[in-house]
Amino acid sequence: MHRRFIxxxxxxxxxxxxxxxxxxxxxxxxxxxxxxxxxERAIFHESELHSPDYYRxxxxxxxxxxxxxxxxxxxxxxxxxxxxxxxxxAHLSWIGVxxxxxxxxxxxxxxxxxxxxxxxxxxxxxxxxTLPCLRRALRLxxxxxxxxxxxxxxxxxxxxxxxxxxxxxxxxx
Length: 173
Description:
CATH class of the domain at 6-126: Alpha Beta
Number of strands: 7
Low-confidence stretches: none
CATH topology of the domain at 6-126: Aminopeptidase
Strand order of the largest sheet: 1-2-3-4-5-7-6
CATH superfamily of the domain at 6-126: Gcn5-related N-acetyltransferase (GNAT)
Order of helices and strands: EHHHEEEHEHEE
CATH architecture of the domain at 6-126: 3-Layer(aba) Sandwich
Mean pLDDT: 93
Largest sheet: 7 strands, mixed
Structural class: alpha+beta
Shape: globular
Number of helices: 5
Strand content: 25-35%
């Protein structure tokens, strides 16, 4: 039986559950990438950042472009981003799916929702950073036309990152 999920905007009431979901995703990244790909100190710091208070702030921000995936009344995916005003850039700062629900198209739906939202706001480009060890994420971004713009050696936490971008509109202005 195929269960259906919905994608909707992040709301203030989602703060507690969004925080717990993000912390599960962070732990799964650590398991997938190991100490060298995503060190324990990064997990500790990022887990503190992904607090319920942080999600309350994000849900209330102007210029937000943040979405959740819900399945059977439970949050199973999240995408946080921002539209950078007249500059025409949308940045996807966080996207994750609960490890128990991967493979259902949730991450792809969140990504496409963010792209469509950015396009509707007049953006010409979507950017994001990812870890090279996240093979599933790399495949997803490449599948949807993202291109690697730069490889950041020893970036945050002295870990390598890749910056990807997608042109969503050719003409701007």
